[in-house]
Known about the structure:
Blueprint: E1 10-12, E2 17-19, H1 34-39, E3 45-50, H2 57-60, E4 87-94, H3 128-136, E5 145-147, H4 178-186, H5 193-218, H6 223-248, H7 268-284, E6 290-294, H8 298-303, H9 310-314, H10 320-345, E7 358-363, E8 377-380, E9 391-399, H11 400-410
Parallel strand pairs: 3-6, 3-7, 4-9, 5-6
Antiparallel strand pairs: 1-2, 4-8, 7-8
Amino acid sequence: MNSFTNRRHFLRGTGALIALPALASIGFRPFASAAQKAKATPSKRAVFLGIGFGVTKETWYPDLKDTGANYKLSEGLTPLSRHKQDFTVVQGCSNQYSNQAHWGSTFWLTGANRYSVPGQNMANSISVDQVVAQHLGQETRFSSMQLDSSDGSVSGHGPGLSLSWDQRGKPVAGFNDPLQVFHKLFSADDLPLAQRQAAINQKRSVLDAVLTEAKRVQRGLSKTDNDKLDEYFQGIRDIETRLGKDEDWLDVSKAKAPMEEPSPGLKGREEIKVMYDLIVAALQTDSTRGMSYRMPGQELLKSLAFTHSAHNVIHYSPGERMEASKTRDKVHAQLLAGLIDKFKATKEADGSSLFDHTALAFGSNISSIHYLDNCPTVITGGGANLKLGQHLALPKDTPLCNVWLTMLHGMGIKSERHGDSSGVVKELQA
């Protein structure tokens, strides 16, 4: 019996089994024939790289008056010069509801209003990478992958477990160790198939029991309590979806790793470099098509022999802290240039490159110091059919989510809006 026929897509109600239809949102995925897959063009992918505490405004941003294709690269962006025709620098964007100067990642990909839910002082909405996962993640082992750093709490990222937030606005956990990511992607499960199936069945039984009890207490609850319980039910459904996905791939071997196993304990610059290698490997093997990485800040500075904290560095003035900030920016640009190199060098089955089919965004919700306007934004890759090779200065306070919406549309995901978006950025559309 195959994984579809033995799947238990039902909830246990008061003594009855309620069958659910074959919906993609609960784990069913259409399988193309081998012939269809052979003819298909390479899949689109998306990657989001978040840096927490912003950049050095004096040296990162190009001159606002120097726009278009022939602009002069800033000092901070100089390491990217060999790819100048293949990335676009966007200025003028912000998230209109952002009001936390140490939260460089919490709302970066969501554009949410933290006070949107009455009685709560911390609400969020779905991040753009998870929108990508909903549309492009049905046919891959992992709908998305979230990478994290071990120093997120001190690097200006703000609340969360990664850059990613689900459709309920709840944080999505990430992997903060390159070795852990490698094993998740490529290491075989040592347990026999029957034992892994039994483990999934056991988890489903627990979910059934929990749902039965929750439904029993639902009657007679106030509207507020019912709203909370509805959110709880959605969480249960999300778990069911993940279990279904796991079951679909039980008898499918993981991809062979196209890289060596990382050394344990990597931090800072080396951590970022290897995480970038893992991003390429994950996309190359089609293990996932959507990735995000909440990058280290404090550990990066330590690996560059600076003793100042990430927070103190953003409060720079001419002197050592400013040099630390400028050096950090240049290293980020160097590493990003190396990642683009790898994207371009990695070939698809049809002879095109991974770069041609991947949309990548690099940036933060914090511009510099404690400023929340003019979010640093670099867009590269051909996966969203965007106009690259330009410096784009948009009107002040253009919603950053307009950029995300433009990326989604370029990837064939026709969302009406995302976060606080007001429309697409026509200057970005090829």
